[in-house]
Amino acid sequence: MTRHKVAVAQMDSGPHKEINIQKMEGMIQEASQQGASLVAFPETSIVMPGTGEDREMESEKIPGPSIARLADAAKEGKIWVHCGSLPETIDGDTRSYNTSVVISPQGDIAGIYRKIHLFDVKVEGGPSVMESVSYAPGKDVVTVETDIGKLGLAICYDLRFPELFRMLTVMGAQILVIPACFTSDTGNEHWEPLLKARAIENQCYVLAPAQIGLKPRYRAHGKSLVVDPWGTVTSCKADGEGIILSEVDMDRVQSIRNSVPCLKNRRPEVYGWNM
Description:
Elements lengths: L2 E8 L6 H17 L4 E3 L14 H4 L6 H13 L2 E3 L3 E4 L6 E8 L5 E6 L5 E3 L5 E3 H4 L8 E3 L4 E4 L8 H9 L4 E3 L6 H19 L2 E4 L3 E3 L4 E3 L2 E4 L5 E5 L4 E8 H10 L8 H4 L4
Parallel strand pairs: 1-2, 2-3, 10-11, 11-12
Antiparallel strand pairs: 1-17, 3-5, 4-5, 5-6, 7-8, 9-10, 12-15, 13-14, 15-16
């Protein structure tokens, strides 16, 4: 079977884990009941970090209590769950990793990705965000084999670094999952074009679950999307919390790669890149 229904969740996560996790459990159940094989959540889905004063309470080990709750929901719904991201405790470091966890329908952890590119920006007259104060960067490029297709994992600001997505594609990714809490300032102009670009250039599906609402330092853009390998938006949630559904078809991925063979026509020996 090459076709599968997938769900992408849009959330307005706040600082209270219990409220957020209850929302996620409900969305997992809904996605399962709607026949989805996978549901993906946005960045900082489990907890939206605040001022940093309660950092130790926000962060947790993986596996930990939040992932255990979502694993139970995945197992009950018999559905793959991409949990968005949460702050992961680092032994001996006051910072955390911004970490995505993929859970199988059996309730097992199938993949862990730690955000590689940290959003450090000071915009004159605009927002100032320094993720490196609170987060440490990940070092591993991660794909996850599922019975839907191979997932390539990234988080939010990673979207602006096309080399990461080319590496994921060379590693076999067919579906790129990009949970985000994009700012409204940049999201209005950049969010959808960047997602389409990553889909088109890598001939992959893109699942982009997003945060909405006013966050501690900026307003989140929202507009969760599913984009197919041709660059067509197949599903979009313009506003509000909830899930959207779409179909992914691995035969379509292969058909597009055959008809426009840009991945086969690469010249890595010229680029000085061994992938």
